[in-house]
Structure formats: C-alpha cells, structure tokens
Design goal:
single chain, mainly alpha, 9 helices, globular
C-alpha cells in the first residue's frame, strides 16, 4: 500500500501511471484500491486537474471497474478540487457517464460522488438526474445514492 501511495508522487512518469491503471487496479485488496484512489488524486493535483482531464477520461473509460473507481473516489469531493470547483457540470457529466456500469461497487461510488456535489450544486445535479432513463436497475441504483439530498 505504501508503494502505491508513492506511485502517486512519482506518477508524472507515464510508465508508473500505466502500471497504476493496468496492474495496481487489479489488486483484490480493498485497501490497496483506496490508496490507488489517493495516488490518482495526487497525480491530478501535481499536474493540475484541468491538465489531467485527458487522463481522467482515459481512466473512466477503462474496462477495469477499480481503475474507474480510483477516479470517482480519488477526486471526491470533486467540487472541492480546482477546475471542478468552477466547472461542476464537468464533474457531474463525467460521473453520470458511469451510472449504468456493470460494477455495483463503482455505481455506489459514482452515486455517492454525485450526492456530494448536490450539497453545493443541487440544481445542476437535479437537472442531470431528471434526464436519466430508469429502464435499467443499474441507473436506478445509482440514482438512489445520488439523489439523497435532492428535494423531489
């Protein structure tokens, strides 16, 4: 776990960032995954959140739920982070793209991250949630987490 934490500080190397995404994300230990999320945030903080958007998007499209969760959990509370503080819609859009992911573990993280954003930006989150199609149990489950503080 300590090594993974250090990877966050050394992540300006593409090889280390790829190792975090492709190998560390496969570790079955939940504590390693929590540290991976912190290491990912450290990477974003180091290079700047706006400059990290390409990497954030790349990880969010990864086939491994733990890599995607490293982003959704690592950047919580998203709107406390530079760039996303001024662009909460960008955070909401990225998170909402995962609302129907097959991983329940990831959907819970996504719903909770959106819920966090709703405390400061309830109207933006409400508008996003109102646009969702609840034809799948996955989006409905994510909605239940995300809408906790939204007045109906």
């Amino acid at each position: 776990m300590y090594a993974v934490f250090l990877f966050g500080h050394l992540s300006d190397s593409e090889e280390i960032l790829a190792f975090m995404r492709d190998e560390v994300s496969k570790d079955e230990n939940w504590r390693v995954q929590e540290v991976l999320a912190k290491a990912f945030d450290e990477f974003c903080k180091k290079i700047g959140y706006e400059q990290a958007l390409f990497v954030i998007d790349e990880w969010l499209k990864n086939g491994n739920a733990n890599a995607k969760r490293a982003v959704s959990e690592g950047l919580r509370i998203w709107t406390n982070r530079p760039y996303f503080k001024d662009n909460p819609d960008e955070a909401i859009r990225r998170l909402a793209s995962l609302k129907e992911d097959e991983s329940e573990y990831l959907r819970k993280s996504v719903g909770n991250a959106i819920k966090d954003i709703s405390k400061k930006f309830p109207n933006l989150v409400k508008a996003e949630l109102e646009s969702w199609d609840f034809g799948s149990k996955e989006s409905l489950q994510t909605y239940k987490f995300a809408s906790k503080f939204i007045k109906k």
